[in-house]
From TrEMBL:
It comes from the Eukaryota. The keyword Protease applies. One of its GO terms (cellular component) is cytoplasm. This is DNA damage-inducible protein 1. InterPro entries: DDI1_N, Peptidase_aspartic_DDI1-type, Peptidase_aspartic_dom_sf, UBA, UBA-like_sf, Ubiquitin-like_dom, Ubiquitin-like_domsf.
Amino acid sequence: MTADEKFISLDVDPDEAVENVKALLEVESGVVLQQQQLMYNGREMNNHDKLSVLGVCDGDLIMMLSNAAPPSRPSSSDLALSPDGSAVNPAAFQQQVRGDSNLMAQLYQSDPELAQAISGNDLNRLQEILRQRHHQKTALRQKEEEELALHYADPFDVDAQRKIEASIRQKGIDENWAAAIEHNPEAFARVVMLYVDMEVNGVPIKAFVDSGAQSTIISKRCAERCGLLRLLDERYKGIARGVGQMEILGRIHVAHIKIGKVFYPCSFTVLDSDNMEFLFGLDMLRKHQCIIDLKENALKVGGGEVSVPFLPEKDIPSHFLDEESFAKQASSSGAPVSSGSKDTRDIPSAPIGSQSSGAAGGNPAQGPDFEAKVAKLVELGFPRNDVIQALQLFNGNEEQAAGFLFGG
């Protein structure tokens, strides 16, 4: 039996030494061997004595006392806070707050972050949070003092009235923010872009679905992994300029992609970019009559004949989650792209993802090449005016114009 009236039952051999019994009690009670004092019939038991020699029999009661010194209470100076709000002795401060169950319960309700730091083992993190709380309280106190001073300011003081106006405006902003936190908290969460599982030339990939990009784009590294780099047409080389700058290596005119269990023909613009692997752009979305269904969280292809779910964040590789910078570059809002000709001259008005037909400058609606393209598309059954408009829309690119006409 221990001093706090806790009973511990041990099954030991009568010839066992008292020291070994203490070792067993250390495991059961947590009191180290050196701090144990065993008493039998009012007499202390020496470590080297055997139980049988002391007359200890089966069922007898042995008293265990602990001679450990009681924990010292921290001094008031150890619990004090520095001028910056951090604790003078963070370990003592942490121990003192931990020992107050009522205070810890209040902290978990009012400031869970601070409560977790006190419950944890990272004293540097605790000090950092204490400084943050001190800074916040100081800033709040200063703000209250400034508002009080403005309340008693001279109504004819122009500067004071400006400050009052700014204070009223900021108060409206703060109230709007608080209302958003309460009624629309999801607006503050990070929005994960839309990705789906696809296969390009039999190779599984995570495709970034972006209706703001005019063309479907594949990186050089991904094209090489999919075995498509051998089909790269370098006549469509250029420089894509937007928020940043990327080199257009050329174009792959047709390859099969697999969405769900169905194969679809697709063309790609190849970029020398590490920010993304594969971007499924508006040209193929329109051609294959895709529907971005956010209610069902799925991409529907062919007007709904195939439906594939958008990937949850846990299934998207972490290096893909930095797609915002590329999305800005790949969007059609004022991002120019160079000519598709080999001389790589810029066409400031063309959005990224669109290339010229390969002619080095000039109006794409003039010349025998343009008329040949018109005639070829008219033979497919499209009206001449529609063909001309489509070719002009895509700067004379015959394949994109055909895709547009088929998709329309």
